[in-house]
Amino acid sequence: IEDGQSWASGGAVLRVSPVEDTEQIEGEISLGAGRVLAAVVKGDVLCVLRDTTPQHFYYYRMPGIPVDPEDQGLFFETYSLTDLPDVSLLSSVELPGPAHTVDTAEFASPSAETVVALLRNTPHYEWFSPMPIVGLPEPIAIPAAASSSVTVSSGGSLSIADSIYRPYPITRPTVTGALMAMDITNPAAPVVGAIRTINQVASLSRLFATDNLVAIGMGVRENVPTPTSSRAPGRSRVGYRFSVYDVAPGGSLTARPLVDLPGRLQAVTEFDSTGALLWTLRSAAPSTAGTRLDVCTWDGSDAYLTASLDLPNQVFAAKNRTAYGSSGNAVSSHTLDDSGQFIEGPSWELGVAPEALSVAENTLLASSGFQLFTTPNFPQTGSDWLSPVVMPDLDRLVGDGPWFLPADDYGIELFRP
After folding, report:
1. What angle is formed at CA 17 by the lines to CA 15 and CA 22, rounded to 5 degrees?
2. What confidence tens digit (pLDDT) does each residue in 364-403 have?
3. Rounded to whole angstroms, what are the CA distances from 91 to 82, 109, 141, 188, 336?
């Protein structure tokens, strides 16, 4: 899929190629004007979330530039893949609300008949609206036991409030978002459930899914009380929450109680309706360099701290009950045993200093800029590969390969670990 977001793009396009020769185009279909925010294949159905805002090059959308409401829209569309290389449109449903407030989106699949979309509007510079800003430092603190200040609506439109425009430096970025579920039992007539909006949070994690459940982690800005005698201005800190929704037929989303977390949610493992392991990161003690990994056990309604471990930095991944962290070119592993203790496991020397880690089935993945490093069936020695473009999100690589990786103007690159 060419998503229609490049500078010279002529719009979103789907192309079909044989696996053995990706340079050969056997089928091609326009996905329409605008940009593709997210796409997922469900059996023989392709689901697409498409934004047709005229100023879909988000670098151009500056404060004060009006957007004609009649020329914008957000569409959920389904395509049949039963007669490849021919692809045909099954349905197109316009979603309520202005699409220009959506910067990024992702799909998750809690069941064979349902897809859930998480939409985000991220913080941005006043003169580069709403270009996402990555890596802004945030204060990290263990939240006090208090009611959450997050506003989560049970319905309404996709009128996600624009993130506050702030001149550089931005010290308190805010993120707004929305969750919606689509029932594709009949892909020719999908049903869109009620929309859940999430307003003014400090951060949103990726979307996690299991059988009829979806979950996200949120950073919530909280005011820190000051003594009444103090003239110092009020301060704030970021507390973290875990939010879970039951997904029912018809696209219904039912929220479970918000749960406090000790740090920013990084991974969810052993996830089902009765519980999960929640892996979070936060700053270590002030006198200690590095990061504190906390593992919490969620029992379906609340979470309890199970174990903690100091790591050298925040490059982290988790699979089942094992945590992976990097220091320079080295990656170490620690496995949580049944008594709640971390047991040190194997370590690996990679060809790169990882900027991201992930585990796909039995393959450890590490990336740094244009380079991807893998250790298939680790702890065996792995191999590395140089991409013509910056590596995509490693969490999108599933299974043990080979993988077809998007390479922008270079098309598709095949990587065999």
Report:
1. 115
2. 888 888 788 777 656 555 566 767 667 777 777 777 777 7
3. 15, 19, 46, 5, 46
